[in-house]
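Write out the 3D structure for:
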Amino acid sequence: MVTGLPTALKGAGVEDAKLTTVNINKSIAPYMANGEYLEATMGTSFYEVYWRGIDLLARLFAGVEYAEDEDDSTLPYWTITAESLPSTEEEFPVVEDYEAQFKKLWGVE
């Protein structure tokens, strides 16, 4: 939601704005790394949430309880700042080993 915003702010003469946003990606991560207006963001579990959706469907079709999959409060969130930003070059998950955790849960690893 802030792609291109630093350029627009500079063009408008705004120099001291401090922004936050709800997600990070490689197009805006350099703003944070370079101290260009973006102070913080919330890392959300987009990678993990897709796997969680598959888990929910597998549980549903197997007749197994899946209420935890529907509970958004159990999703991991992470406040990312320039100091904790893992990369400006590539996308990254909030939980590094989410794939291995799901495979272990499913008994396929």
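Residues 46-62 form the longest helix (17 residues).
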